[in-house]
Amino acid sequence: MKHQQSVLRLRRGVHGNMSFYRNAIWFVKGLQEYTRSGFEAAAKHFAPTDLDVNLSGRSFVITGANSGIGKATAQEVANRGGTVHLVCRSKERAEQARDEIVQRSKNQNVHVHIVDMSSARQVWEFAQSFVQSNTVHVLINNAGCMVNQRELTDEGLEKNFATNTLGTYILTTALIPALKTVDDPRVVTVSSGGMLTQKLNADDLQFEKGSFDGTMAYAQNKRQQVILTERWAAQHREIHFSSMHPGWADTPAVRTSMPGFHAKMQSRLRTEAMGADTAVWLAVSAAAAKQPSGSFFQDRKPAPTHLPLASSRATPQDEEKLVAALEEFAVKFKP
Fold first, then answer.
1. Residue ranges per domain, the chain?
2. Which of 106, 216, 254, 288: CA 20 to 30 A from 206?
3. What CATH number does the domain located at 2-333 have?
4. Is the pTM of this model over 0.85?
5. What is the pLDDT of residues 98-135, one digit of tens each?
6. 294: region left, alpha or beta (phi > 0 left; psi from -120 to 50 alpha)
7. What is the layout of strands, in order, in the sheet containing 295-298?
8. Distance, CA of 94 to CA of 67 (rounded, Å)
9. Which residues form a coiled coil (predicted)?
10. So which residues are the catalytic ones?
11. What does the pLDDT average to over 228-252?
12. Which of 207, 210, 60, 228 is nearest to 147 (CA)?
Protein backbone atom coordinates (compact mmCIF):
# COMPACT_ATOMS: atom_id res chain seq x y z
CA MET A 1 0.00 0.00 0.00
CA LYS A 2 2.77 2.41 0.96
CA HIS A 3 4.57 1.56 -2.28
CA GLN A 4 1.41 2.33 -4.32
CA GLN A 5 0.99 5.67 -2.53
CA SER A 6 4.63 6.53 -3.21
CA VAL A 7 4.18 5.71 -6.91
CA LEU A 8 1.03 7.87 -7.07
CA ARG A 9 2.82 10.77 -5.38
CA LEU A 10 5.74 10.38 -7.78
CA ARG A 11 3.39 10.35 -10.79
CA ARG A 12 1.59 13.46 -9.55
CA GLY A 13 4.95 15.16 -9.02
CA VAL A 14 6.15 14.26 -12.51
CA HIS A 15 2.82 15.36 -14.01
CA GLY A 16 2.92 18.63 -12.06
CA ASN A 17 6.50 19.35 -13.10
CA MET A 18 5.70 18.52 -16.73
CA SER A 19 2.64 20.80 -16.65
CA PHE A 20 4.75 23.62 -15.23
CA TYR A 21 7.41 23.01 -17.89
CA ARG A 22 4.86 23.00 -20.73
CA ASN A 23 3.17 26.17 -19.47
CA ALA A 24 6.46 28.01 -19.03
CA ILE A 25 7.83 27.06 -22.45
CA TRP A 26 4.47 27.81 -24.07
CA PHE A 27 4.23 31.29 -22.53
CA VAL A 28 7.72 32.26 -23.68
CA LYS A 29 6.87 30.95 -27.15
CA GLY A 30 3.61 32.89 -27.05
CA LEU A 31 5.27 36.19 -26.20
CA GLN A 32 7.50 35.77 -29.25
CA GLU A 33 5.01 34.35 -31.76
CA TYR A 34 1.36 34.70 -30.69
CA THR A 35 1.26 38.47 -30.14
CA ARG A 36 0.57 41.29 -32.60
CA SER A 37 4.30 41.70 -33.23
CA GLY A 38 4.57 37.96 -33.87
CA PHE A 39 1.91 38.23 -36.55
CA GLU A 40 3.54 41.28 -38.12
CA ALA A 41 6.87 39.43 -38.32
CA ALA A 42 5.23 36.38 -39.91
CA ALA A 43 3.18 38.48 -42.32
CA LYS A 44 6.36 39.77 -43.99
CA HIS A 45 6.65 36.31 -45.55
CA PHE A 46 3.03 35.93 -46.70
CA ALA A 47 2.45 35.60 -50.46
CA PRO A 48 0.48 38.79 -51.23
CA THR A 49 -1.72 37.16 -53.88
CA ASP A 50 -2.82 34.10 -51.85
CA LEU A 51 -6.10 35.75 -50.85
CA ASP A 52 -6.83 37.28 -54.28
CA VAL A 53 -9.65 34.84 -54.98
CA ASN A 54 -13.22 35.03 -56.25
CA LEU A 55 -15.43 32.83 -54.05
CA SER A 56 -18.71 33.25 -55.90
CA GLY A 57 -20.45 29.88 -56.14
CA ARG A 58 -18.71 28.50 -53.04
CA SER A 59 -20.59 27.97 -49.78
CA PHE A 60 -19.04 28.38 -46.31
CA VAL A 61 -20.53 27.20 -43.00
CA ILE A 62 -18.95 29.12 -40.11
CA THR A 63 -19.85 28.37 -36.49
CA GLY A 64 -19.68 31.04 -33.79
CA ALA A 65 -19.72 33.68 -36.51
CA ASN A 66 -21.45 36.61 -34.82
CA SER A 67 -18.31 38.02 -33.16
CA GLY A 68 -14.55 37.71 -32.84
CA ILE A 69 -12.56 35.51 -35.18
CA GLY A 70 -15.67 33.83 -36.61
CA LYS A 71 -17.18 37.13 -37.67
CA ALA A 72 -13.88 38.41 -39.07
CA THR A 73 -13.57 35.18 -41.11
CA ALA A 74 -17.14 35.50 -42.37
CA GLN A 75 -16.46 39.10 -43.41
CA GLU A 76 -13.40 38.12 -45.47
CA VAL A 77 -15.31 35.31 -47.20
CA ALA A 78 -18.26 37.62 -47.96
CA ASN A 79 -15.90 40.31 -49.28
CA ARG A 80 -14.71 37.78 -51.88
CA GLY A 81 -18.22 36.83 -53.00
CA GLY A 82 -18.69 33.58 -51.10
CA THR A 83 -22.03 32.41 -49.77
CA VAL A 84 -21.80 32.53 -45.97
CA HIS A 85 -23.86 30.57 -43.47
CA LEU A 86 -23.49 32.03 -39.97
CA VAL A 87 -24.19 29.33 -37.36
CA CYS A 88 -24.82 31.17 -34.10
CA ARG A 89 -26.55 30.75 -30.75
CA SER A 90 -28.02 34.26 -30.38
CA LYS A 91 -30.56 35.32 -33.02
CA GLU A 92 -30.21 39.01 -32.22
CA ARG A 93 -26.41 39.09 -32.37
CA ALA A 94 -26.33 36.86 -35.45
CA GLU A 95 -28.71 39.12 -37.37
CA GLN A 96 -26.75 42.20 -36.32
CA ALA A 97 -23.53 40.55 -37.52
CA ARG A 98 -25.21 39.57 -40.78
CA ASP A 99 -26.34 43.15 -41.41
CA GLU A 100 -22.83 44.49 -40.77
CA ILE A 101 -21.18 41.87 -43.00
CA VAL A 102 -23.65 42.54 -45.84
CA GLN A 103 -23.22 46.30 -45.51
CA ARG A 104 -19.42 46.10 -45.68
CA SER A 105 -19.19 43.44 -48.39
CA LYS A 106 -22.24 44.42 -50.51
CA ASN A 107 -22.84 40.64 -50.64
CA GLN A 108 -26.40 39.59 -49.88
CA ASN A 109 -25.58 35.87 -49.72
CA VAL A 110 -25.14 35.82 -45.95
CA HIS A 111 -27.55 33.59 -44.04
CA VAL A 112 -28.26 33.05 -40.34
CA HIS A 113 -28.86 29.68 -38.67
CA ILE A 114 -29.64 29.57 -34.95
CA VAL A 115 -27.91 26.59 -33.32
CA ASP A 116 -26.53 26.07 -29.81
CA MET A 117 -23.32 24.15 -30.49
CA SER A 118 -23.38 22.78 -26.92
CA SER A 119 -26.59 20.88 -27.74
CA ALA A 120 -25.77 17.65 -29.57
CA ARG A 121 -29.40 17.28 -30.71
CA GLN A 122 -29.51 20.81 -32.15
CA VAL A 123 -26.25 20.26 -34.02
CA TRP A 124 -27.59 17.03 -35.53
CA GLU A 125 -30.91 18.65 -36.50
CA PHE A 126 -29.15 21.60 -38.13
CA ALA A 127 -26.77 19.41 -40.13
CA GLN A 128 -29.51 17.08 -41.33
CA SER A 129 -31.81 19.91 -42.45
CA PHE A 130 -28.98 22.02 -43.92
CA VAL A 131 -27.79 19.44 -46.43
CA GLN A 132 -31.30 18.91 -47.76
CA SER A 133 -31.45 22.39 -49.28
CA ASN A 134 -27.88 23.75 -49.25
CA THR A 135 -24.43 22.96 -50.61
CA VAL A 136 -21.33 23.17 -48.43
CA HIS A 137 -17.81 23.52 -49.83
CA VAL A 138 -16.04 24.63 -46.65
CA LEU A 139 -16.85 24.05 -42.97
CA ILE A 140 -15.10 26.34 -40.48
CA ASN A 141 -15.42 25.02 -36.92
CA ASN A 142 -14.87 28.23 -35.02
CA ALA A 143 -17.43 28.21 -32.17
CA GLY A 144 -15.68 27.98 -28.83
CA CYS A 145 -16.56 27.96 -25.16
CA MET A 146 -14.48 28.55 -22.04
CA VAL A 147 -16.67 28.25 -18.94
CA ASN A 148 -14.58 28.71 -15.82
CA GLN A 149 -16.95 26.86 -13.47
CA ARG A 150 -17.94 23.28 -14.23
CA GLU A 151 -21.39 23.54 -15.80
CA LEU A 152 -23.64 20.92 -17.36
CA THR A 153 -25.80 21.37 -20.46
CA ASP A 154 -29.47 20.35 -20.58
CA GLU A 155 -28.23 17.04 -22.02
CA GLY A 156 -26.08 16.45 -18.93
CA LEU A 157 -22.70 17.10 -20.58
CA GLU A 158 -19.90 19.35 -19.35
CA LYS A 159 -20.34 22.55 -21.35
CA ASN A 160 -16.80 23.12 -22.66
CA PHE A 161 -16.54 19.52 -23.88
CA ALA A 162 -20.06 19.60 -25.35
CA THR A 163 -19.36 22.77 -27.36
CA ASN A 164 -15.71 22.52 -28.35
CA THR A 165 -15.30 18.80 -28.91
CA LEU A 166 -18.62 16.98 -29.26
CA GLY A 167 -20.34 19.79 -31.21
CA THR A 168 -17.37 19.98 -33.58
CA TYR A 169 -17.30 16.19 -33.94
CA ILE A 170 -21.02 15.85 -34.73
CA LEU A 171 -21.19 18.77 -37.18
CA THR A 172 -18.08 17.64 -39.06
CA THR A 173 -19.02 13.98 -39.31
CA ALA A 174 -22.60 14.88 -40.30
CA LEU A 175 -21.39 17.15 -43.14
CA ILE A 176 -18.61 14.89 -44.47
CA PRO A 177 -20.91 13.05 -46.94
CA ALA A 178 -22.09 16.40 -48.40
CA LEU A 179 -18.53 17.73 -48.55
CA LYS A 180 -17.45 14.70 -50.59
CA THR A 181 -19.88 15.68 -53.38
CA VAL A 182 -18.26 19.06 -54.20
CA ASP A 183 -15.00 20.30 -55.72
CA ASP A 184 -12.17 21.27 -53.36
CA PRO A 185 -13.95 20.53 -50.04
CA ARG A 186 -12.26 21.76 -46.87
CA VAL A 187 -12.73 21.64 -43.12
CA VAL A 188 -10.89 24.22 -41.01
CA THR A 189 -11.01 23.95 -37.20
CA VAL A 190 -10.02 26.95 -35.09
CA SER A 191 -8.03 25.32 -32.32
CA SER A 192 -5.56 27.04 -30.00
CA GLY A 193 -1.87 27.00 -29.22
CA GLY A 194 -2.99 26.43 -25.64
CA MET A 195 -3.41 22.77 -26.58
CA LEU A 196 0.40 22.50 -26.53
CA THR A 197 0.21 22.59 -22.71
CA GLN A 198 -2.03 19.51 -22.59
CA LYS A 199 -1.67 15.78 -23.16
CA LEU A 200 -4.93 14.05 -24.09
CA ASN A 201 -6.69 12.67 -21.01
CA ALA A 202 -9.10 10.18 -22.56
CA ASP A 203 -10.12 8.87 -19.11
CA ASP A 204 -11.72 12.14 -17.95
CA LEU A 205 -13.21 13.88 -21.00
CA GLN A 206 -15.78 15.76 -18.92
CA PHE A 207 -13.44 16.82 -16.09
CA GLU A 208 -15.23 14.91 -13.35
CA LYS A 209 -12.07 14.11 -11.38
CA GLY A 210 -10.22 16.62 -9.23
CA SER A 211 -10.74 20.39 -9.18
CA PHE A 212 -12.09 22.04 -12.32
CA ASP A 213 -9.96 24.50 -14.29
CA GLY A 214 -11.75 26.15 -17.24
CA THR A 215 -8.53 27.17 -19.01
CA MET A 216 -7.16 23.62 -18.75
CA ALA A 217 -10.50 22.16 -19.91
CA TYR A 218 -10.47 24.46 -22.94
CA ALA A 219 -6.87 23.48 -23.78
CA GLN A 220 -7.81 19.78 -23.46
CA ASN A 221 -10.69 20.34 -25.91
CA LYS A 222 -8.35 22.08 -28.33
CA ARG A 223 -5.91 19.17 -28.13
CA GLN A 224 -8.85 16.86 -28.90
CA GLN A 225 -9.74 18.95 -31.98
CA VAL A 226 -6.20 18.62 -33.34
CA ILE A 227 -6.28 14.83 -32.85
CA LEU A 228 -9.68 14.61 -34.58
CA THR A 229 -8.37 16.69 -37.50
CA GLU A 230 -5.43 14.32 -37.98
CA ARG A 231 -7.70 11.28 -37.87
CA TRP A 232 -10.30 12.72 -40.27
CA ALA A 233 -7.54 13.60 -42.73
CA ALA A 234 -6.33 10.00 -42.72
CA GLN A 235 -9.84 8.61 -43.17
CA HIS A 236 -11.29 11.02 -45.74
CA ARG A 237 -8.62 11.81 -48.32
CA GLU A 238 -11.06 13.59 -50.66
CA ILE A 239 -11.40 16.46 -48.13
CA HIS A 240 -8.64 18.85 -47.01
CA PHE A 241 -8.66 19.05 -43.20
CA SER A 242 -6.68 21.52 -41.13
CA SER A 243 -6.59 22.99 -37.64
CA MET A 244 -5.02 26.30 -36.71
CA HIS A 245 -3.95 28.63 -33.92
CA PRO A 246 -5.19 32.22 -34.28
CA GLY A 247 -2.62 33.61 -31.85
CA TRP A 248 -3.56 35.76 -28.89
CA ALA A 249 -6.30 37.99 -30.27
CA ASP A 250 -8.38 40.71 -28.64
CA THR A 251 -11.82 39.09 -28.93
CA PRO A 252 -14.99 39.28 -26.78
CA ALA A 253 -14.36 35.66 -25.70
CA VAL A 254 -10.87 36.46 -24.40
CA ARG A 255 -12.12 39.58 -22.62
CA THR A 256 -14.93 37.61 -20.93
CA SER A 257 -13.22 34.29 -20.16
CA MET A 258 -9.69 35.50 -19.40
CA PRO A 259 -10.03 39.05 -17.99
CA GLY A 260 -6.70 38.94 -16.11
CA PHE A 261 -4.77 37.79 -19.17
CA HIS A 262 -6.58 40.37 -21.32
CA ALA A 263 -5.78 43.22 -18.91
CA LYS A 264 -2.06 42.35 -18.81
CA MET A 265 -1.64 41.63 -22.51
CA GLN A 266 -4.13 44.04 -24.09
CA SER A 267 -1.58 46.25 -25.83
CA ARG A 268 0.15 43.19 -27.35
CA LEU A 269 -2.90 41.26 -28.55
CA ARG A 270 -3.68 40.74 -32.23
CA THR A 271 -6.71 42.26 -33.89
CA GLU A 272 -9.61 39.95 -34.75
CA ALA A 273 -8.64 40.17 -38.44
CA MET A 274 -5.08 39.05 -37.61
CA GLY A 275 -6.48 36.15 -35.61
CA ALA A 276 -8.73 35.16 -38.52
CA ASP A 277 -6.04 35.45 -41.21
CA THR A 278 -4.84 31.83 -41.20
CA ALA A 279 -8.39 30.46 -41.00
CA VAL A 280 -9.31 32.52 -44.07
CA TRP A 281 -6.12 31.43 -45.86
CA LEU A 282 -6.83 27.77 -45.12
CA ALA A 283 -10.43 28.12 -46.26
CA VAL A 284 -9.92 29.94 -49.56
CA SER A 285 -6.37 29.90 -50.92
CA ALA A 286 -4.98 27.49 -53.52
CA ALA A 287 -1.68 27.46 -51.61
CA ALA A 288 -3.32 26.07 -48.46
CA ALA A 289 -4.87 23.16 -50.37
CA LYS A 290 -1.37 22.06 -51.39
CA GLN A 291 -0.31 21.64 -47.76
CA PRO A 292 -0.62 18.18 -46.17
CA SER A 293 -4.16 17.48 -44.97
CA GLY A 294 -4.47 17.11 -41.20
CA SER A 295 -1.77 19.65 -40.34
CA PHE A 296 -1.91 22.26 -37.57
CA PHE A 297 -1.15 25.80 -38.78
CA GLN A 298 0.10 29.03 -37.30
CA ASP A 299 0.44 32.17 -39.41
CA ARG A 300 -0.04 30.30 -42.73
CA LYS A 301 2.61 27.67 -41.96
CA PRO A 302 2.38 24.13 -40.58
CA ALA A 303 3.41 24.16 -36.92
CA PRO A 304 4.46 21.41 -34.48
CA THR A 305 1.64 19.94 -32.39
CA HIS A 306 3.94 19.24 -29.41
CA LEU A 307 6.50 21.31 -27.53
CA PRO A 308 10.06 19.93 -27.36
CA LEU A 309 10.49 17.29 -24.62
CA ALA A 310 6.93 17.93 -23.39
CA SER A 311 5.75 14.29 -23.27
CA SER A 312 2.35 15.32 -24.63
CA ARG A 313 1.82 12.66 -27.30
CA ALA A 314 -1.20 10.42 -26.83
CA THR A 315 -1.09 6.69 -27.40
CA PRO A 316 -3.13 5.28 -30.31
CA GLN A 317 -5.25 3.53 -27.67
CA ASP A 318 -6.13 6.84 -25.98
CA GLU A 319 -7.01 8.40 -29.34
CA GLU A 320 -9.27 5.43 -30.07
CA LYS A 321 -10.88 5.85 -26.65
CA LEU A 322 -11.61 9.54 -27.43
CA VAL A 323 -13.22 8.74 -30.78
CA ALA A 324 -15.24 5.84 -29.32
CA ALA A 325 -16.63 8.09 -26.58
CA LEU A 326 -17.56 10.80 -29.08
CA GLU A 327 -19.24 8.29 -31.37
CA GLU A 328 -21.21 6.90 -28.44
CA PHE A 329 -22.47 10.36 -27.51
CA ALA A 330 -23.19 11.21 -31.17
CA VAL A 331 -25.35 8.10 -31.58
CA LYS A 332 -27.09 8.72 -28.25
CA PHE A 333 -28.26 12.21 -29.21
CA LYS A 334 -28.94 11.61 -32.91
CA PRO A 335 -32.62 12.40 -33.69
1. 2-333
2. 254
3. 3.40.50.720
4. yes
5. 999 999 999 999 999 999 999 999 999 999 999 999 99
6. left
7. 110-114, 83-88, 59-63, 138-141, 186-190, 240-245, 295-298, 301-302
8. 8
9. none
10. 218
11. 96
12. 207
